[in-house]
Amino acid sequence: MKKVKVTQVKSSIKRPETQKRTLKALGLKGIGQVVEHEATPSILGMVKKVEHLVSFEEA
Predict the structure, then answer these.
(1) What's the Cα-to-Cα distance from 30 to each of 35, 40, 42, 58, rounded to whole Å?
(2) What gap in Å lies between CA 21 and CA 28, rounded to an integer?
(3) Alpha-carbon dihedral of residues 36, 39, 41, 43, nearest 10 degrees?
(4) 35 close to 6: Cβ distance less than 8 angstroms
């Protein structure tokens, strides 16, 4: 299966709690951190929910 690299590019300060929890579920703790996940529908949905806070690319 394809992999997706997700990088946090903006802060979660002053964001709704649901977006903070989504970042935490993706494994992101701070700006500049990169995580790699399988490109499952649930992961892609989480990325879509916080796409204004992260950048992503297929690896």
Answers:
(1) 11, 23, 21, 21
(2) 10
(3) 10
(4) yes
DSSP string, 1-43: --EEEEEE-S--TTS-HHHHHHHHHHT--STT-EEEEE--HHH
Reported as a single tens digit per residue, the pLDDT across 1-59 is 899 999 999 999 999 999 999 999 999 999 999 999 999 999 999 999 999 999 999 98
Closest alpha carbon to 59 in 2, 10, 1, 12: 2
pTM score, two decimals? 0.93
- Cα–Cα distance for residue pair 51/31, rounded to 1 Å: 14
